[in-house]
What we know:
The chain is of the alpha+beta class. It is 37% helix and 18% strand. The protein has three domains: 3-69; 100-174, no CATH class; 175-204 and 223-406 and 422-461, phage-related protein like fold (Alpha-Beta Complex). It has a seven-stranded mixed sheet with strand order 5-16-10-6-9-8-7, with helices on one face. Strands 1, 4, 11, 12 and 15 form a five-stranded mixed sheet that branches. Strands 2-3 form a two-stranded antiparallel ribbon. α1 runs antiparallel to α2. It is elongated, with a radius of gyration of 29 Å.
Amino acid sequence: MTLSEQLAKLRASKKAAFEAQQVHVTKAADEGRTLSTEEQTAVDAAQAEIDSIDADITRIEKMVETEAKSAQPVNKSAAQPGHVFRTVSGGEAPKAEKGLAFAQYVRTLAQAEGNKHVAATLAAEQAKAGRIDSRVAAYAKAAVSGATTTDTDWAGNLVHDSGVIVQDFIDYLRNRTILGQFGKNGIPALRPGVEGVPVDAQASAASAGWVAEGGAGPVTSWSYSTRKLQAYKLMALCVASNELLRKASGAADVMLRDELARAVAEKEDSTFIGTAAASGGAPAGILNGAATQVSDATSGASATAKFEADFAYLVGKLITAKIPFAGVVILMSTSNAFALSRIRDANGNYTYPNIGMNGGNVSGIPVLVSDYVGNIVTIMAAGEIYLVNGAGLDIRISDQASIEMQDAPTGNSKTPTAASLVSMFQTDSQAFLVTEGIGWERRRTAAVAYVTAADYSKANA
């Protein structure tokens, strides 16, 4: 039995002892009494067993740490002539598709209950058996070892091979967010910003005029407000059962990867295309204070007529504000983009042939789509919006935490409030906390305009 298997067995025994304690304590509480002598004896015996198991777990975890640190690479240069080195294993697994290697590492770390030394051993065993991407083992090993990136015989390849699994997941995540689509596939890029650096946000533009010979030149003015760029902390909390995490399967890895990415993307997109002011540690939505009106509600108006009226309003706002159209983008929901792609004229031709559920363009203006923007259609000048990337992606795991299972939790460590909590230990689950530092700021208020209540799937009643 390997050390990791011994740890798993001990943890299962500890859980069983804890559940035995709960039976006695719960029974007494339900009956409105204190523990009987027999129940006290049983609870104390179970606690003694738990304490003994904890001591065994600590010893074996130290052994795993020692094993990881003392592992030595094979010295091929010292081999006898003609000696052939072979790896006896289940075969190296092919490199996982984008984002999955990171999910495999997260699952391995969860199986090790957050212990990176145990995770390194598990990852090495699973990679040797061909069940996970070999880069996961390298990444796990890099997290606990004293290797250097200049050591060509051991860890020199970690800069490329293991570091890429985190970047893979970030790329996978970014491609599923609105912000991640800017600067790719012909979409204009947002203006890069540096956290903590003050910038001037322009509220109005200057103008010029022709002057006749001897005439006075026009005096124009414009206004600015100074703001400091800030990266905010976006946190996504996901919970998965240990039954799922124990299954070293491709389906489990895909589910974990997609759920982690979905949780971050949903909150990031809905906040970015939001109308709320900055508050509660969240940045202001880019629609906050922007020009807006309700989508065309003319009685009997066709879907085409509604979109054309909305489009004219949005474009008109940027023209009036003298916003250059070189970096303009339209953003709408996937359902509205799909609805527009199905509209035909009287001759059966598609009215908007260059748009589909994955985006496209309208009159040459790129269209971005998101599942999290609702019935809002937005036009924006990408170069007039600062994007601030703060601290990179971080993930933490716990099976001991108690989680408030709400999408709008009320818990606060500064001003504690009562809340209903679910124990990860009691429910045999793991909690994953993904943290990302990111922020944005409009350079010009007039660079954004939007319409609400847009629905291009049908004509108005």
